[in-house]
């Protein structure tokens, strides 16, 4: 059942129950009032008849009694008026045939109901403290019943009209009330579509009660995007892992065999004249091996050995190792270390490969002459390392993808270096991102190791 | 010549009628006073239809005046507020004594201009005659305003040496029918009524419950009486008109509601019997 139907059904049901209850109470109350009124009238009429008939009864003026009784004929609801004497003889009655007869049952001086729709009221006629007769007024309750029936009819009409009106109003207003929900549903339904834009949802101003729901949907959507992205990365990495194991098995083994065979041939020196070819074979085997090493690095990626590392020392070591290479390419290596020795907890080889990978990428990007700036800052919790170069840079549209496995703009790149670097940094609870304005900057953020035991021996030295 | 004489008579007759009619029309209306204890529409209606018919027949407009009792009626006539009065026998005698009024007609009930009063008891009563009444409860009609319900029974009681004040417990019920009912219901030991009401079909139920123990002589009924100074020709016209009522359907129809059968010529000597009773009443 739709929300609207539910809203209408339940509201109408509650309305109906309340209205029926109210109508019932009103009618019962009205009936009581009418009943009281008719009883009061009965007493009044009986008393009046007794009062005006007193003297006439005393002197047996029956004609006056008859006249008195007849005068009650025009009174509303009066179906019978009688005057009886102490013997129960009817001295005067609206129904003249009854005159002179005796009443069948003697009524006490009180009110009683007869046949459910007649009210009989009797009143003693008293002169000087002596009862000399009694008046009996019979009132029909037909008017009362008619009034009640009229009330019931009116109630039903009003109820039906109010019911229809309310249903109509709810029908109209439900659309308005439920609009934020239907809107949300409409937007959420479009999430799988490729051109979906969450800003549509953000731009809405939902009612207070639904704000939470809207925010949750927005949050879930954004979370879903992140999860989806990482899932893709993970899948790609898993594929890479499997592939590297496969490659290791299927290529390394034949390569080992070939390499062995080449050594054997070298030793026998049977083919000295052919040494140039053997050298080529050896070189190509090395190339293949290096490529495989990169894969295998990735395959081994999961085994980390965390130790306390001085990041400044590490960067100094790396720059020293790469000095020859930078010099050859006419590249200036600028070190701007704005902090003293800072430690992180990490796998020194993995960290080394990350920085080496990035600096090598920079060297490759610069090609001939330029600079690479390694800048280290820190704040309370993190060490911030920026590696900047003035090389050919990265296109803006590629920035998102450079950390994806197998993405490369280089002709001979495998496209796994940066993805592995990202994986390693994230394992160290850090962050890596690339910016490009004029220069390319890799920003690495790593949490500071906060064990103050400075005396511990630096494992990196 | 013979024809001429006939034509002459005819013309004279027509002329006479024309002059007569004009002279009547020129006259003012005359008033008839009747009694009614309370203003009873039925009584007005019953009289009105009779007066309308009489007016038509006599050419004299008659207006009805209602007085609360006979004494008032006599006073009205004395003061010339009314021209005619409808007096019950006793009050006719009184009015005649005081005002020397002239009786015109008297009503006929059950074909007779006479009626009798009488004493009634319940049919199971042990009372056999008037002397048994001593110490009993007696129902009369109205004090001093009724002939057969007051003056007549008291006169008869006086003749039988019963003093109504000392020897009886009297209750005044206002109307003859009330007396009849009181006796019939056994609420009183005896009552005095005009006996013709027993013949009324409507009272059959009650009349079957009673027994008559004494009857009066025949009395003349109520008379329509003219003031002393009312002209004789008017009295004659009115008498003629009243008397003619029981001769045709329209007249009978006009009297239907009143219970009158017709009217008879009334004269003063008829009321001598009433005068005799009044002598006994005053004893």
From TrEMBL, chain A:
CDD domains per the UniProt record, alphabetical: HisKA
UniProt source species: Halanaerobium saccharolyticum
Keywords of this entry: ATP-binding, Kinase, Membrane, Nucleotide-binding, Phosphoprotein, Transferase, Transmembrane, Transmembrane helix, Two-component regulatory system
Official protein name in the record: histidine kinase
Superkingdom of the organism of origin: Bacteria
Enzyme class: transferase
SUPFAM superfamilies: ATPase domain of HSP90 chaperone/DNA topoisomerase II/histidine kinase (SSF55874), Homodimeric domain of signal transducing histidine kinase (SSF47384)
Molecular function terms from GO: ATP binding; phosphorelay sensor kinase activity
Catalytic activity: ATP + protein L-histidine = ADP + protein N-phospho-L-histidine
UniProtKB/TrEMBL annotation, chain B:
Keyword field: Signal
SUPFAM superfamilies linked: Periplasmic binding protein-like II (SSF53850)
Transferrin-like domain span: 30-283
Lineage: superkingdom: Bacteria
GO cellular component: ATP-binding cassette (ABC) transporter complex
GO BP annotation list: transmembrane transport
InterPro entries: PhnD (IPR005770), Solute-binding_3/MltF_N (IPR001638), Transferrin-like_dom (IPR001156)
Family: Belongs to the phosphate/phosphite/phosphonate binding protein family.
Keyword Signal (UniProt): yes
Protein name per Swiss-Prot or TrEMBL: Phosphonate transport system substrate-binding protein
